[in-house]
Amino acid sequence: MGASSVQHLASVSFLSTLIALGCHPAKLTPQGDTDRIVITEEMIARSGGQTAWEVLRREAPQLTFGERNGQATGMSRRGRSSFVLNDSPMVIIDGARSLDIKALQSLPASTLMRIEVLTGQEGTTYYGTDAVGGVIIIKTRTGGQ
Fold this sequence. Notes:
The protein is of the alpha+beta class. It has one domain (24-140): Beta Complex (Ferric Hydroxamate Uptake Protein, Chain A, domain 1), CATH 2.170.130.10. The chain has four helices and seven strands; from the N terminus they run αβααβββββαβ. A five-stranded mixed β-sheet has the order 1-6-7-4-5. β4 and β5 form a beta hairpin. It starts with a helix and ends in a 5-residue tail after the last strand.
């Protein structure tokens, strides 16, 4: 194998790695953090979702959504899960924890300013073992007032 073949293989390998890492560049934080996905106000509007639930379904591919008869029944992260720990993400709306996942279906998308989805280690770092399934942080225009 000649030097130009090795150089070609190295550039092909680099290119495929670059493509794999750039799957959702608009959803990464400006720092390129893959454990925190930010859904901006512009992305919320562009998604066409009418509720926070619909926006998340369209903009958070790392989550799986459960519904029965049009009602939210649950949410979990894609990939490996735990039989021991609660896999459902923690939901925080304007600084208050919501224990009912159905609250996302009653929260109009027009009131949303920003949604952050923390996955992996970052969720448990800030919110403890209850957040092993991740954390969804929602900021609304009213800020809980």
